[in-house]
Amino acid sequence: MTQPSSDSFRQWLEQQIASEPYWFHRIELSPDLVTPGWNDPIEQKVPYFNLPSDMTGMRVLDVGCSEGFFTFEAERRGAEEVIAIDSAPDGIRRFNICKNALGSKANGYLTNVYDLHPRTYGTFDLVMFFGVLYHLRHPILALEKLHSVCSGDLLLQTADFEDADDDTAAARFHPFGITSGPPDNPVHDNTVFWIPNPACVRDMLRHVGFVDISGGHTPAAAVFRASVEKKAKGFGPDWSKAPFS
Length: 245
Known about the structure:
27% of the residues lie in helices and 26% in strands. By secondary structure, the chain is an alpha/beta fold. It has a single domain (56-227), classed as Rossmann fold (3-Layer(aba) Sandwich). Helix 6 (139-149) packs across helix 7 (198-208). The chain is globular and about 60 Å long.
C-alpha cells in the first residue's frame, strides 16, 4: 500500500484545521503549525494546574478534553495510557485531528462524566478535570463518578468566585448561562450552571470521599489537588466482563 507523502499529509492537516469554525486550545502540532485556539494552555493553565513533571507509567484520564492539549501533555510527560472524554462531538473531532498530527496513542471517547464507571473504564492513577465542573447540572454526582475511577490523585480546575467569607461553601446558580469565550469575541454560554467559591469546591471534594485536599483561587481560577484514601495502581477494564455484565 502506498503511504501518503509528508506533503499530502500536511495539506490534509491544514485543510482539516481550516474546516473547523472553532478552536479552544492552541496546540503545537509541528514547529510551524499551531491550532488557532483562543486559549493558550502553556501560558494560561500549565503554570497553575500542578501537573506532575514525570508521569512515567501512569494511567491517566482527561475529562472534558476538548482538543486534547492535556491528554497529549500527559503523554509527553511519560504517561503509559491516556483516555480522553468529551461530551461535544466537535471536540472529539478536533481531538482526532490533533491525535493524527501528533501520532498520539491516546483514545478519545464521545461520552460524559456521568458515564464513568470502573467496570467500563477501569481506574486511573491521575484524573484531570479541568474546566468542566461549572458546566454541570449535577456537580456532586460528577465528583462521585470521578472518585469511583480514581485510584490515585485528582487535579481539578473550575471557574470560581471569590467570597469575603472565604471559608463558607457557596455556589452561584446561573439558570440561563453566562457571557464567556474569547475576550475580543465574547459569546453567550448557556451551559454554565453552577460557579462555586473555593470553599465549596473543597467541601464537595470532601463530601464524595477525597482526602489530602489542597488548593484555592489562582490566576487560573480555582485549582485543587486531592487524593483517594487508599491509593492503588490504575488498571484497565476487564474486557472479559466489561461492558457486558
